[in-house]
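Suppose you are handed only these lines of text.
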Amino acid sequence: MKALLLVGGEGTRLRPLTCNTVKAMVPILNRPFLEHMVSYLRNYGITDIILTLCYLPDQLEAFFGDGTSFGLNLVYVMEESPLGTAGAVKNAQQYLDDTFLVFNGDIFTDIDLQAMLAYHRNRQAKATIALTPVLDPSAYGVLETEPDGRVVRFVEKPKPGEAKTNLINAGIYILEPDILDWIPQNRPYMFEHHLYPHLLKDGIPVYGYAGSGGYWIDIGTHDKYRQVQYDLLEGRCTAVLNIPGKGPAVYPGVTIEGEVTIGDGCRIGAGTRIAGPSAISENCIIEDGASITASFLWPQARLGKNAILNKCVIGRESVIGDRAVIGEGAVIGDHTSIEPGTQIAPGSR
Ligand code: GDD
Ligand code: MG
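From them, the structure of the protein bound to magnesium ion can be written out as follows.
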C-alpha cells in the first residue's frame, strides 16, 4: 500500500520554530519529525511514500533525497499554491491506483495500520477515518458514527458544546482510488470541510475506526511539541527510530536526573544540572552552573553561566546570556540573543 503524507502546511502555530525549519523537519528528540513518521510506516512494509508540498522541498530533499538510503521510494508532489488537504491528494492522482493511506503531516502515532486496513476491507468502505479520543475536541474534526462505525456527521473545529463525542479525526485515512473522482482538480478542496460532508450527503460508505487505542498526538502547537517528546522520553509512546544520545551520559561535575538525551559534540560545564525529560541537540554549549528542566535545545544553542531553563525550547544557534531565566512555555527562535539576566516567563502571565 502507498502512503501519501500532507506536509504542505506552513506550521504557523509552531512559529518561531518553523521560521527556518519546515514543520515536517522540526526535531523530535534530535531527529526530524518526518524521519520518525516514515520509520513507523516502513515498519508496516510501507515504503512507497508520496510527499505533497506547497513550498520548495529543499530541506526535505536535502535530508531524504529519493529515499533510497532510508529504504524508501519517495516522490515529491508540489502544489503551486496550496490546494488544501484533499486537493493535494487529487494533485498526486497519477501515483494512486489502488487502496492508499493518507496521513496529516503532523501526527505522531503508533496506531495499528494493519488492523485499520482489515477494518476498512471488512466493511467495504470507500473511506475509513482513524478516530482518537481527546479531552477538548474543539481544535479538531469531530465524527459522529453509528454503532457499527459508519460515519453520519463530520464537524470540523466544533464550537465549545457543539461536539456530541470526544472522538476526533486522527488525520489518518484509508481511501479507495475512486474517491478521487469526488475531488475537483486544481482548486483548493479540503477533506474536512468539503469531501467528507459531500460523501456523507451522497450516502458513500465512510467509516470511523476507533479500535486503535494507540498513542496519538498532533505536534502542531508549542505545548504538543514539548509533550510528544516528554511522552517519548518517559515511555508513554514508543519510538520506532533509535534516539541518539539516549541513556546514561557521563559529564564530570554535571548532575543529570530523569530522562535526558544529549547529542554529540556538546560541552557541558561543571555544576550544571539537567533534569528530564529534556533533549539537548548536538554541538550545544552549556556553561558552568546552568540549570535545565524539561526543555529542548536545538543544535548549537548556547547557554550562559547560571542561566535557567524551565519547560522551554531554544532554537538553533541561539545564545542565552548568563543568569537569564527562560520560563515555562517560552519558545526562543533560531539565531536569537537573549541578554544576560533577562527573565522570560510566558507561562506565569
Ligand atoms: N500538501 C498540502 N497542501 N498539505 C496541507 C495543506 C495544503 O494545502 N493544508 C494543510 N496541509 C497539511 C498540514 O501540513 C498538516 O500536516 C495537515 O495537512 C493538517 O493541517 P493542519 O493545519 O495541521 O490541520 P489541523 O491540525 O488544524 O486539523 C486537521 O488535523 C486534525 C488532527 O490533528 C484536521 O484534519 C482535523 O479534522 C483533525 O482532527
Ligand atoms: Mg495539525
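What can we learn from it? Residues 95 and 324 are 52 Å apart (CA to CA). The longest helix spans residues 222-233.
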